[in-house]
Design goal:
8 helices; alpha/beta
């Protein structure tokens, strides 16, 4: 790490996720300075008030963390002004599917859960292994998500760029990353709770990854939170509990439970940034992969 050239980082958008990126990257030995482009100026970093070619040429790594509905516009501006830069767009990539841009920069999407040790374990041990059935389930209560903002005013509550499908697109990314392209055949995507939001709070779907059946449920209104992956193979079954940090593997009469440590969110983000900056994003979601997830979201939304 001592021989690595220190870099300048620009964070576009300084909401809660922008703050998190700044705090995490400020601890990185490979970071020289952090710049913020935002209407908010209540921070201890370098403030810039305009995106110009002159300013951007001083930046090595750019993070787009403003509202999802503005990602596409900002990425187009950056792509016009600079080339050869590393750019990370917070997930989901856009608020809807767009045709691919003719990129002049190296663009990645912030699906940091790829760097969760549990997801890495599944990738390493079961990459494209034929499963009979995969079930993913993510349920929680939107009211309990954020303490600094009323849930009804959050990005999750917005009709454009919000909703369970956008917030839980992590699952669509890492399942595709591990097992392959997902083709939905049935979905029910609607609002069924009394939450004061304009977005949809419930999704149930079923589909296939090649010959493997995949099903899932996402919701915003459950008072018992859960985030699980259940996989059945011919000779074994797996349960990955992403909230309680353990994986259970059952094979014949043998049951093995593996507990994972250091699975916190900050660590996954830090490892993702390191992967982009130091390893050319070898394990990070690429722009094309992010677009494919947007197409899956489109198919599940209709």
């Amino acid at each position: 790490m001592q021989n690595i050239k220190k870099i300048n980082v620009l964070i576009i958008g300084y909401g809660s996720i922008g703050e998190r990126h700044a705090r995490i990257l400020s601890k990185g030995k490979f970071v020289k300075q952090i710049f913020i482009f935002s209407k908010r100026q209540d921070h201890a970093y370098n403030q810039i008030n305009s995106l110009s070619k002159k300013t951007l040429n001083k930046i090595d790594y750019i993070i787009i963390s403003n509202p999802t509905s503005k990602h596409y516009k900002i990425l187009k501006i950056l792509n016009r002004l600079v080339k050869g830069k590393k750019i990370m767009v917070e997930k989901p990539l856009f608020e809807k599917y767009y045709k691919p841009l003719n990129l002049r920069n190296n663009v990645y999407v912030g699906y940091n859960m790829r760097f969760d040790p549990m997801i890495q374990f599944l990738k390493k041990n079961f990459f494209k292994k034929k499963a009979l059935k995969i079930n993913i389930m993510s349920k929680s209560n939107l009211k309990k998500w954020r303490k600094n903002i009323n849930y009804s005013k959050s990005d999750s509550a917005k009709r454009i760029g919000g909703g369970v499908l956008m917030d839980y697109s992590h699952e669509l990314d890492f399942i595709t990353w591990i097992f392959g392209k997902f083709m939905p055949s049935f979905k029910l995507h609607t609002k069924i709770s009394k939450l004061k939001i304009k977005s949809k709070d419930f999704l149930v779907f079923i589909g296939k990854i090649k010959k493997t059946i995949i099903s899932g449920e996402f919701n915003y209104f459950s008072n018992i939170a859960s985030r699980e992956i259940n996989i059945d193979f011919v000779d074994s079954s797996i349960k990955a509990d992403l909230l309680h940090k353990y994986i259970t593997i059952s094979k014949k009469n043998n049951i093995k439970k593996i507990t994972f440590k250091n699975c916190n969110r900050d660590t996954t983000y830090f490892e993702m940034h390191k992967n982009i900056i130091l390893k050319k994003g070898s394990n990070t979601c690429s722009y094309i992969e992010g677009l494919r997830t947007m197409k899956t979201i489109k198919n599940l939304s209709n």
